[in-house]
Amino acid sequence: MPARLSAFTMIALTTLSTLLLAGCGGSGSDAKYLVIFCQANNAEPYRAAQNERFEELFGERDDVKLVIYDAAKNGTKQVEQIEQAIKQQPDLLIVAPLNNATPNKPMEKAQEAGIKVICLERNTTGKHYDTFIGCDNKAIGRMAGEFIVKALTEKHGEPKGKLIELKGSEIQAMNDRHDGAFEVLQPHIDAGKIEVVHTATANWAKTEARAKMTEAYNATEGDFDVIYAHNDPMAHGAYLVIKGKNEQAAKDAIIVGIDGLAEEGVKWVEAGDLDATFEYPLCVDKAVEIGMKMIEDPDFKPEATYILDSRPITGK
Amino acid sequence: MNKLLQVLAQRRDLTLTLIVLVALFITAVIISPGQRFPKEESLGFMTVTLPKGWPIFLTLENLTDILRTNAIIGVMALGMTLVILTAGIDLSVGSILLLASVVTGLVIRDTNAPWIAAVALGIFAGTVVGALNGALIAKLKVQPFIITLATMIGIRGLAKMFSNNKTVLLPNEEGTQGYAFIEIVASKWVTIGSFVVLAAVFALLLWGTVFGRYVRALGDNAKAADYAGLPTQRMLVAVYTLTGMLAGVAGVLSCALDENADSTQGVAAELDVIAVVVIGGTSLAGGRGSILGSVLGLLIIMILKNILGLNNIGSNEQQVIMAGVIILAVAAQMIQGSSLPAWLRIGPLKN
Question: In which element (H, E) is residue A256 found?
Answer without folding.
Answer: strand A254-259
